Amino acid sequence: MFKRKKSKEKKDKKRIMLVCGSGMVSSTLVYPMVEEILKEGGFRYEIIKGGFNDIKKYANINMILTTVSPLPKNVVEMGIPVVVVTSLFKGDKESVRDNIYEVLKK
């Protein structure tokens, strides 16, 4: 019984890639804000920080959060849902939160 619960928990966990142009600076700054949004929503999650070239290294990414817009064409072609989180720097947590929740609840 314990094993079933554990495998279900892994299945329910969302894998989120937090991406900025350089792979670390902006993503490090927005990380705590994104984490707060995810905790408030009650989501189980794993956040992976990196650059656009790192996305291909990870399997089963549920969403990309980014501080970069427009996105590189090869990222758009992957078909992974994307939320631009740059407005968090301006204090606009509500619209970012709504966009994140919309994607994760699908």
What report would you give on this structure?
- This protein has 106 residues and is α/β, with parallel strands linked by helices.
- It has one domain: Rossmann fold.
- The chain contains four helices and four strands, in the order αβαββαβα.
- It has helices at 2-12, 25-40, 73-76, 93-104, and strands at 14-19, 45-50, 63-66, 82-84.
- Strands 2-1-3-4 form a four-stranded parallel beta sheet, covered by helices on one side.
- Helix 2 crosses helix 4.
- The two termini are 28 Å apart.
- Residues 1-10 have low confidence and may be disordered.
- In helices, the fraction of residues equals 40-55%
Shape, principal axes of CA atoms: globular
**How far is the first residue's CA from the last residue's CA?**
28 Å
The biggest beta sheet is recorded as: 4 strands, parallel
Helix and strand run? HEHEEHEH
Number of strands: 4
Instruction: Identify the strand order in the major beta sheet.
Output: 2-1-3-4
Helix-and-strand structural type: alpha/beta
Number of folding domains? 1
State the CATH topology.
Rossmann fold
Radius of gyration: 14 Å
* CATH architecture field: 3-Layer(aba) Sandwich
Mind telling me the CATH class? Answer: Alpha Beta
Rounded mean pLDDT score: 85
Instruction: Spell out the CATH superfamily.
Output: Response regulator
Give the percentage of residues in beta strands.
15-25%
* Residue runs with pLDDT of under 50 for 5 or more positions: 1-10
Can you count the helices? Answer: 4
